[in-house]
């Protein structure tokens, strides 16, 4: 379970190391999909040698030299553990990653078990090549971003892992959103049909159709979200936009992914909050204009996007 001793969560030293590694996201996926913290097999030495070659490639060496000497000594120890564990999984099942392109509101994929997933722009899922092969084995997907799942009922549990939560079902439709880089980062789960169990730490909360829950960063329990409008919450799948008391900074990140543009604004604007609903979002200029007017600021076009500024 995703608490401080979770097999799905990286130890702090390895997480810090991956923050400066160009393939950090992919390595995180491998770790979390493995579901094991100490699964170093005897043949991991071969993987460690392979990974050592990868880590010693010249571009990565230059990047690591940017950190302090103390951090580099610390990271060297962490790297030894990382390459012995994370890349040991390369000796086992291959990890498949599906990414949704920026600039496309939603992309639909079919998983090997017949389940379908709709990914919002800039989102990604990861799963191993044995996913769904054994009808009695747990089906695990790692998510970064926003996704809507329509799960094929096979009798095997279907589990969605985010940076701080796990959501488990047998057969149902539901949405999960988790952007760990957001302000006030959280994992949000909204159920359309069936029932799901959301886990964080030692706490499990069951959700029925129309229910929603949030696991905020640093919290150990899912918290129910009252009065969720299901139509608005899921409107992103058909081109809509919906934000409820959301920091403007998070909205700008979402719009950057949605329209594949660059949006800039000072912290004084990003910290403001906005509630906004558009059933059918049009072009980026109109949406940015709506956001600017709603929070009382101005905007202007710049290279590759827009800038929001104070009057």
What does this structure look like?
The chain has nine helices and 18 strands. With 311 residues, the protein is of the alpha+beta class. It folds into three domains: 12-91, no CATH class; 95-229, Jelly Rolls (Sandwich); 240-309, Phage tail protein beta-alpha-beta fold. Strands 1, 2, 3, 4, 5, 6, 7, 8, 9, 10, 11, 12 and 13 form a 13-stranded mixed beta sheet that branches. Strands 15-18-17 form a three-stranded mixed beta sheet, covered by helices on one side. Helix 1 (12-18) packs across helix 5 (69-85). The longest helix has 17 residues, at 69-85. Residues 1-8 and 35-75 have low confidence and may be disordered.
Strand and helix map with partners:
Layout: H1 12-18, H2 24-34, H3 44-55, H4 58-64, H5 69-85, E1 95-99, E2 106-110, E3 116-120, E4 124-128, E5 139-150, E6 158-161, E7 166-169, E8 173-178, E9 186-193, E10 196-200, E11 203-207, E12 212-216, E13 223-224, H6 230-233, E14 241-247, H7 248-259, E15 262-264, H8 267-270, E16 273-278, H9 284-295, E17 298-302, E18 305-309
């Amino acid at each position: 379970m995703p608490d401080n001793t979770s097999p799905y969560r990286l130890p702090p030293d390895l997480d810090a190391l991956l923050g400066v590694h160009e393939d950090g996201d992919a390595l995180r996926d491998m770790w979390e999909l493995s579901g094991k913290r100490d699964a170093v097999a005897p043949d991991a030495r071969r993987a460690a040698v392979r990974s050592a070659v990868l880590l010693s490639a010249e571009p990565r060496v230059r990047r690591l030299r940017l950190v302090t000497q103390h951090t580099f000594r610390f990271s060297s120890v962490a790297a030894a553990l990382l390459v012995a564990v994370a890349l040991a999984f390369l000796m086992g099942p291959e990890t498949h990653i599906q990414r949704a392109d920026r600039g496309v509101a939603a992309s639909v994929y079919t998983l090997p078990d017949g389940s379908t997933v709709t990914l919002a722009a800039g989102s990604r899922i990861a799963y191993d090549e044995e996913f769904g092969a054994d009808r009695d084995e747990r089906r695990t997907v790692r998510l970064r971003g926003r996704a809507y799942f329509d799960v094929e009922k096979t009798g095997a549990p279907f589990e969605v892992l985010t940076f701080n939560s796990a959501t488990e079902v047998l057969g149902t439709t539901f949405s999960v959103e988790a952007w760990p880089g957001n302000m006030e980062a959280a994992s949000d789960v909204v159920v359309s049909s069936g029932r799901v169990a959301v886990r964080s730490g030692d706490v499990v909360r069951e959700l029925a159709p129309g229910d929603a829950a949030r696991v905020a960063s640093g919290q150990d329990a899912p918290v129910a979200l009252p009065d969720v409008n299901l139509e608005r919450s899921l409107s992103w799948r058909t081109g809509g936009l919906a934000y409820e008391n959301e920091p403007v900074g998070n909205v700008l990140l979402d719009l950057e992914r949605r329209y594949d543009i660059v949006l800039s604004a000072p912290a004084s604007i990003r910290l403001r909050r906005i509630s906004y609903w558009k059933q059918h979002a049009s072009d980026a200029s109109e949406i940015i204009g709506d956001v600017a007017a709603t929070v009382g600021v101005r905007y202007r076009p710049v290279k590759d996007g827009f800038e929001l500024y104070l009057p």
